[in-house]
Amino acid sequence: MRTALRGIAVLAAAVVSSAPATAHHSNPLYFDMTKAITLEGLILRVEWINPHALIFLQSKNEKGELETWTIQGTSPVNFARKPELKERLKAGIWVAARVFPQRNPLYLDDTQTVLLTRPDDPKTSSRIVGGGQIRLSNGDVLAFGGGPTF
To answer: pTM of the entire structure?
Structure first.
């Protein structure tokens, strides 16, 4: 009986200790970190929210049509150490962004969190990318995420 209780206690401890590890996604699961693209456009808005800050960037595609991209950055906690980012990344400025394209179908839920979805789900967006460096029009480069660099 004691051995069985000890086994159950060990199993329960293993399950509880593994929960935080599964609570956060892996960037390689979401984004193709072997490829990098550059997007250029106008920042529509910036959301400094958990779990990841977001930039909504409007750019033109190859046909000249406007598209809105969602760039997922790092956690806003990381930006607390760099307050100049909030002052400099604002709606209405033109930027270039180095980003990783998505590896799997993604969507942005009602809480502004990027999540995995099925390819046939109507919520899926092909314009959600993993952020890296942002280049401002004056040439300054800022780190918005752990993604690609210029």
So the answer is: 0.82
